[in-house]
Amino acid sequence: MTDRRTPLARARGLGSAKDGLHHWWIQRLTAIALIPLVVWFAISLVMLSGADYPVVRAWIGSPLVMVLLILTVGVGLHHGQLGLQVVWEDYTEGALRVVLIVLTKFLAALFGLGAIVAVLRIGLGG
Amino acid sequence: MSVANRPVHRPLSPHLQIYKPQLTSMLSILHRATGIALAVGALYLAVWVMCAAASPQAYASFQGFNTSILGRFVLGGWLFSAFFHLCNGIRHLFWDAGYGFALKDAYRSGWIVVAVSLIATVLSWIVGLRLI
Q1: ipTM of the complex as predicted
Q2: Where are chain B's structural domains?
Q3: pTM of whole model > 0.90?
Q4: Mutate which of B2, B31, B45, B66 to disrupt the A interface (most A C-beta within 10 Å)?
């Protein structure tokens, strides 16, 4: 394919890192997965209004809820950090941008794993 | 200054001060705003599950915040953000597939998103508050 960039752009060495499509595709894939998950979770959240501690624990610990909850948190946080990365890329630059993106991804991994361990602990005992 | 380092004076995007708001642009920025809110909300959800796993005391203090005015505002706002981002996200997926780009369609789908997300939000608030 012909290089459609201007000679100036080529001279600057700026261009695609060839990673954008993967980011775009995963954002859409997680978005589609989140449609049923968020509907389910929003309804559950409303139905759990006023529920006390044992009820909430029993709900989290049932097998189907464990699976759906882990999916919701995991896929949701992944989708969220992809989105926040674009926000940082739009409004910040330089070292600050890198720091914020790294921090966002680390926080998503930390809270995601924390939530998964918590769900497993409630459901599997211990 | 070398050619490579010379700044390029490209046209700027519309200045916000003189920019006439339209439904399409407002929903666009609201999609980003609710997305940011939901990303923070996902951390909140993670803390909720972790508190439930930790101890009855930890869960009680978390619920204490949830039942406060600020907590109600956060949870109610989470529900609105979720419903809006969900509906408008589906609108975006149709665009990604190549449908609904005509101006008339973009406005129609925009109003549908506004209506559905507001109805779902109000409904969830009413049901949620009744159950407490």
Answers
A1: 0.86
A2: 24-131
A3: no
A4: B45
